[in-house]
Task: structure prediction
Amino acid sequence: MPPPFIDLVKTLPASVPFVGPETQERQMGKPFRARIGANESIFGPSPKAIEAMRQAASDAWMYCDPENHDLRHALAAHHGVSPDNIVVGEGIDGLLGLTCRLFLTDGIPVVTSAGAYPTFNFHVAGFGGTLNTVPYRDDCEDPDALLDAANEHGARLIYIANPDNPMGTVHDAETIQRMIDNTPKDALLCLDEAYIEFADDGTAPAIDIDNPNVIRYRTFSKAYGMAGARIGYAIAEKNLAVAFNKVRNHFGVNRIAKAGACAALADQAYLKAIQQKVIDARAKISDIAAAHGLHALPSQTNFVTIDCGKDGDFARRVLGSLIDQGVFARMPGVAPMDRCIRITVGRDEDLAIFADALPKALMAAETE
Amino acid sequence: MPPPFIDLVKTLPASVPFVGPETQERQMGKPFRARIGANESIFGPSPKAIEAMRQAASDAWMYCDPENHDLRHALAAHHGVSPDNIVVGEGIDGLLGLTCRLFLTDGIPVVTSAGAYPTFNFHVAGFGGTLNTVPYRDDCEDPDALLDAANEHGARLIYIANPDNPMGTVHDAETIQRMIDNTPKDALLCLDEAYIEFADDGTAPAIDIDNPNVIRYRTFSKAYGMAGARIGYAIAEKNLAVAFNKVRNHFGVNRIAKAGACAALADQAYLKAIQQKVIDARAKISDIAAAHGLHALPSQTNFVTIDCGKDGDFARRVLGSLIDQGVFARMPGVAPMDRCIRITVGRDEDLAIFADALPKALMAAETE
Result:
């Protein structure tokens, strides 16, 4: 007889937030030709970060400093806050999980947007919270609707990503600041800024580090090109930041990742070059879409969401054909956003493969 | 007003399982001369693992395969089980946390030994379990006492490490098998085998993969020399292994670590060489202890626990002096084991520093 799981675990589905491209490759029996589906930075990390990680490989016998002292201090200087306001963790995914753990138990209400980041929902369910959703509005997350729902349900956590994934849309700093200001005093606004380095300057509202009702998540996975290194951070009011020490894996951060993150942060010139490459690639993807009569949504991220012009079934057929043709891409999961496909920016060679595959996919979707 | 943490979090202390050596170095204002305190493998990982990690550094832009397919398959072949029996995670620490999460909530009883691995206790508290402890017996964890306590308290989880940390002692396969056989049917025996590769052949009982009442933890942190890479695994009955998918961070494993682990596992010749180096170094540490009239406990791990021959206060003074002299070491935290200090095996140059510092530490402890 097996020992019984706790009741909460019994209610959890075995589903996963995302199927990895490697799983699809194994199912197809062939590798993808273009990996432009997971909003990874195919341009890679800074050469200085790569070199720091290569150097650190031979130091892998040592646990990482559990205080992540040098990285926290560097991040604090970068953001003009105290190191006590920085929580380093195993990517935003890990930090979202810890946040849920700190604030959620049986049925505590949470608010997010239907179709927003599924890993947040995975953690909410995993810690027993009750998820309430509001719809997107004009392909954007809807701050007013989120706040209204938070008040209605008495939500403890409110999630918003700015810029948004999977739509690539953005709210300006004033709108987000107003949302912060209007967050209920017994709630925490989980502001996911994973893509903020791709947005126009001034998109992020100024950090008010004494506000205990907002936590901001940043990552080395996107603009810094280190998704596989699993390192991100939260910027939070001091008492909240310290509370993570009660539940985090103190030795959980990979030493190589930490070395890479320090080097990546120090190489802001490389980040600037990446930002320009992403802007250029977004334009190219939009052009490819337009060449086939499709509208690409304006994006402030490292992906472009393309409106396929019909319903979700049509877009799913387009996506299926792209995948069959060796193009790893994804799409929004909820209507009406699921009329779109989502293409991560790539190098010219990746986009050429996409440009070749898209018309065939559209034709296949039409005639299927 | 800050949003309220859940009640459980309010009860958790801000303490950490271990203070890292880097923290001590910052406090002292100087680096340690010998890092022989955290049971890291100063001999390092296999050169093939280092090379694999160096190669993988430039692939760090890609998330790791969330199924960890190749590593799980390699581990399954290595252990003669199915890939469905292998859970790869962010070190044993991470896997212990997930185990607690699956099985523990308000006050569910757990049994461990007073003075055993504190990170397990950290996770038990962190998920609301109630920890019950039994004493060590003759410097060994006491399987009979653990089982008696498990029956008495109705424990859901029972923790034992074999070989044991911090004492380095070991039970033979028959004793552990008897413990497995006598584990209550509504309990899970958490068998931490982090140090098993350092033990004599035959120390680990055969894996009975259909037994849902035992889970075995292994790691690349110790014998494979990759503590800073944060990668370990559990071997478990299939339904238990699958349940981890409900709560784990699917994209939580570092891609570089995974590449290193695959290469390390494939290089069993290097592992054998390390095992011999560890045996040799254990003998040297015992000799150093004996040269100063101290008894070293027989060890089947990569550390040696030295009986300082007096009480805990004396041993703490010895340890304090070692640290002052630049030797990073640790000691058991609970009486009567705290009459000992714990020295991780090192290279000859590390042990020479220890050999030089020990008599001075003993003298300082005597006269203080």
